[in-house]
Each structure stands twice: as C-alpha cells, then as structure tokens.
Design goal:
- The chain is of the alpha/beta class.
- It folds into 3 domains: 169 residues, P-loop containing nucleotide triphosphate hydrolases (Rossmann fold); 70 residues, no CATH class; 235 residues, P-loop containing nucleotide triphosphate hydrolases (Rossmann fold).
- 34% of the residues lie in helices and 23% in strands.
- It has 17 helices and 23 strands.
- The protein has a 7-stranded mixed β-sheet with strand order 1-11-10-4-9-8-7, sandwiched between helices. The protein has a 6-stranded mixed β-sheet with strand order 17-20-21-14-22-23, sandwiched between helices.
- Helix 3 crosses helix 4.
- The radius of gyration is 24 Å and the shape is globular.
Length: 529
C-alpha cells in the first residue's frame, strides 16, 4: 500500500501525535511517523513545515504539547532533555555540521565525545588518533585526521561529522538524523556520501534524512514522510511515489500545477529556439554589459566572460574548480586581477566592493552564508541597509521612508510575513533568501551575481526565486548564477560556463542545458560542450 496511515508497531523510532505550539503558532499538529530498523527514512516539506521543530523535539531542545509520544525501541523518550535523547541512541548531524574548522578531525571528535586520557589527566594522542581512524573506518572513509577540517573536501567534512555522531563510546546508536547533508556538496561528492550512508545502515542504525532535493530522496530513501504547515501528509514507499506527487504533497496541488506549467512553458520556449535560431540574439552577438578579461584569483586563471543585458549566465564546476571564488571576485569581495570594461566602455584593472557598487554590481549570497544578512536585525533593516543614504534626512534616517521601501519589497517579492519589524533570523530560509535578493534589487543594480541562490530552500521558494530572476532579466538586468545545483542552470540560465582547474572548459547554450549535458561537462566527459 502506498500510504501508511498509522505508525508501525515494529518501528525503531515511533512518533505518535506529536504536537508543538509556540506563542501564536502551531508548529506541529498531531504528527505520527514510524522509522523502521535499518531504513533510510526521508523527511520532506517546505521551510516552515515543521521539520526543524520535529528534529529539535527529538534532540531534546523542545518539549512538545501534552499527548505527544515518542518511543525508541519500545521505550518512552523523555522530552526536553538532550542527554536523555543521546542516551536513547539518537544522534544528529546538522547542515552546518557543527565542526570547529580550525581543529583537526581527531580534535573535533574529542571536543564532542571526549578525549581518551592517560593517567594524570593528559590526552593519550596515539590512542585517540587510533579511535578517530576506527570511527572513520566504520563508514569506510580514509582521510588525514591531523589536517584542519577547513582544508578537507566538503564530503570529507561531512564524513567527519557523521563518524563523530556514530561514536559508540557514548552508547549504542539507534537513529542518525541528517539535516540537508548534501546542500554544500558538488554532484561528484554526493555519490560518495550515499556510500557512507549505506555503511551506516549496514552497521544497524536507522537514518532520518532531511532534504529539499527530491531526486536524491527518491534515489536513496526507503520511506518518505511529508510535512505541510505542521501537519503530516502521510508516509510513502519511495519506490512507489512519483516526483510530481511529492511536490503536490509538499506545496499543495495549486502550486505544484504552477511548477509543472512553468516547466512546460520553458520546454516549449526551448523547442521554439531550436526550431528558429534566427528568432533570438545569441549572447556572443548581443551587446555586453560588462566584459571581463584575464580574471585570476588563487584558483581562477585567465577567465574571460561577456555579460549580456537581460541574460542569465550560469557558472558550474566541481569543488576546487574555481566556481566558489568567481562570485566574490566579480564583485570585489575577494582579491582578483582582471580587466573589466563597464557599460560606458571604461576599463578597470581591479575591483573593490565600493567600486563594484558604483558600477551597479551586486553580490547575493546564500541565506546560510554568515555575511549574507544580520540575523538579529529586522527584516526591513536587512532589506534597506545597503541603501541607507537614500533615506537620510538632516543627518538622520527617515524611518517612514525606510519602512515604505521595505513594505514595497515585501509585497513585490511576496516575502512573508509582511511585517518589516519581524526579526530576520526567525524567517524561513526561502523568505530570508527573497529578502536578501530584495536588498540588492533595492540598489537598482545593472548586474546581480548570485552565489548558490536556492541552497537549502524548499520547492515553492525555489520557483519564486526563479520567477524573480526571469522577471528582472526581462527589464534588462544581467544575472550571473554560480551554483552547485544543476536545477538552477536548467530552470533559468541562457548560457552556462563550466570551470575546471580554474579555467572555462565548456560552454552550453540554452537548448543544450540538460542534466546529462551538465553532468558530462562538469565531470569532464568527452563531447560535453
């Protein structure tokens, strides 16, 4: 049967009638989920659907409403007690991994689980290093445990966090909870993480896997539970439920229909472009807004780009290809050498953030980037602070004008709630990302450079961000999208350049931007371009 209407009595973790009410909000409403022994159980839903509240309840950080019940291997889980959660065998790896990047893998394990000690209170480093290697060997991972984790590949950092969570010196493991484990991973490293998860499963632990990436959920999950507006929409066999049905369950049928209609419209536009090349102006024939020649940084070597009015240019590549540095280099946020010719045909030999702003170049960071926002400030302040001089009068900020500008963008980009006084850090990830985009649109840019703009946002917010990009490009804005997510390129880009070894190795025009072509180009297959 496709849908499970009741939890399984044989469940390793049996969640029944779980509810959580915050002041003015019901975050969870009688949610029931059963996670079986040794299964990969996916949890999906939009930002704000209740996923984080459910995870934090399992972790002991929230106490649910009366009548809620969670059993682990048939034993009631005490609520509101993180230590009781750990003793019950529940382990958590959050999206930010919780690693101290300046410390090594061995040191991170010790900080979390405790160091192996000698008599006299000194750390027994030989034994502790061996213990760390054994933890990694359990999930068939080998890496330099004495290298600071900041210098490890993203997939290796994830492996360290998972191995640390599986340290049984703190007791046996019943359930490993992974929150967006592939959000920061390039495609080539995602498969390696899948192999790690299979080893975790083989060792006897169940896995609760939280992700917005439905393709990977359907690929590796055994069961999928869906939350919407705090309510459970059911549990489904991953082999029996379709991608489209999942979208309907996550966002509601009306939004799902809009997503499909949007995809069909884009497909028809692509077919039209293929049938009549003469009906569109190719980027290499269209006038450039900015011309970049010889862009070089630590990893980029002599990159040339022509940025065209009204075009969305994608930048793809594996970790280490230089893709991660291009967004900040183009906007003066990181040191780079280049010759940049602006729309007035003036050549610049270097960029600073101030000069980039003067030229109308804006950098939109992912909402999870620490420099993307000031989370303790209000939503309105985050939207307007890049243009505060425009609201200054007699040496003071005109609060009425500032609020009016914020309300305009809340309405224009459908940012919720429509309250500019709302603390930014309390917004869902999708609304945070739209507010960050609004801040830079408020500066009336000529070029907007976006770094992983849909990282960690749900399917509804993703569509909204794509719509914003397309609408602004129709008014003449140029956009560069640097991303690790292939869907970003397929959905909005007119061209995609692929980086490897710090140089452009392939360029795909819109009619050739498909998942197969992108993967072939990114991984260096023959005939990719």
């Amino acid at each position: 049967m496709l849908q499970s209407t009741t939890t399984n009595p044989a469940a390793r973790v049996d969640i029944r009638s779980l509810s959580k009410t915050f002041p003015g909000q019901k975050a969870l409403i009688s949610v029931s989920i059963g996670i079986l022994p040794g299964e990969i159980h996916a949890l999906v839903g939009e930002n704000g659907s209740g996923k984080s509240t459910l995870i934090k309840t399992l972790a002991g950080f929230h106490t649910p409403d009366a009548g809620s019940s969670v059993q682990v291997d048939g034993v009631d889980l005490p609520f509101g007690d993180p230590q009781a959660s750990r003793e019950a065998g529940l382990r958590f790896v959050h999206q930010d991994l919780g690693l101290i990047e300046e410390l090594t893998a061995a040191e991170n394990v010790g900080v979390s689980s405790g160091f192996l000690m000698r008599r006299g209170g000194r750390i027994d480093w030989p034994r502790h290093r061996a213990h760390t290697r054994n933890l990694l060997a359990r999930i068939r991972v080998s890496l330099d445990i004495d290298t600071p984790v900041a210098r490890l590949r993203p997939v290796d950092r994830s492996a360290v966090a998972i191995a640390r969570a599986l340290d049984q010196s703190q007791g046996p493991i019943s359930l490993l909870v992974l929150d967006e484990p592939t959000a920061a991973l390039p495609p080539a490293e995602v498969e390696q993480l899948y192999s790690v998860l299979q080893e975790v499963r083989a060792a006897g632990a169940s896995i609760l896997y939280v992700s917005h990436r439905l393709e990977e959920i359907l690929k590796i999950g055994d069961s999928i539970s869906v939350l919407r507006d705090g309510c459970g929409q059911g549990t489904f066999d991953a082999k029996s439920v379709s991608h489209d049905r999942l979208i309907e369950l996550i966002v509601g049928e009306n939004v799902a229909t809009a997503v499909r209609d949007d995809a069909r419209a884009r497909h028809r536009a692509t077919e039209s472009a293929q049938l009549s090349e003469s009906n569109r102006v190719e980027p290499d024939l269209a006038p450039s807004v900015f011309r970049i020649r010889g862009l070089s940084t630590g990893r980029l070597h002599g990159v040339d780009l022509d940025l065209v009015r009204g075009e969305v240019l994608g930048v793809a590549g594996l970790t280490g290809s230089g893709r991660e540095e291009l967004a900040t280099a183009l906007t003066g946020a990181a040191p780079a050498t280049m010759t940049l010719t602006d729309p007035n045909d003036v050549a610049w030999l270097s960029l600073t953030p101030r000069r980039a702003r003067q030229l109308g170049i804006a950098l939109v960071l992912a909402n999870r980037h620490p420099a993307s926002s000031i989370r303790e400030m209000t939503m309105g302040e985050n939207i307007t602070f890049a243009r505060l001089p425009a609201y200054r009068k007699a040496g003071r900020v005109n609060l009425g004008q500032e609020r009016s500008a914020a309300l305009h963008w809340l309405e224009d980009l459908d940012i919720r709630p429509r309250n500019p006084e709302r603390t930014f850090g309390l917004l869902s990830g999708g609304n945070q990302q739209k507010a960050i985009i609004a801040r830079w649109l408020n500066t009336t840019p000529t070029l907007m450079v976006m770094d992983d703009p849909t990282s960690g946002v749900d399917v509804g917010a993703r569509k909204a961000i794509y719509d914003i990009i397309r609408q602004r490009c129709r008014t003449g804005l140029s956009v560069v999208v640097c991303s690790s997510d292939l869907e970003d390129f397929i959905s909005v880009c007119d061209r995609v350049v692929v980086l490897a070894g710090g140089t452009i190795v392939s360029t795909l025009k819109r009619e050739h931007i498909t998942e197969a072509n992108l993967l072939a180009a990114i991984t260096g297959a023959q005939g990719a371009s």
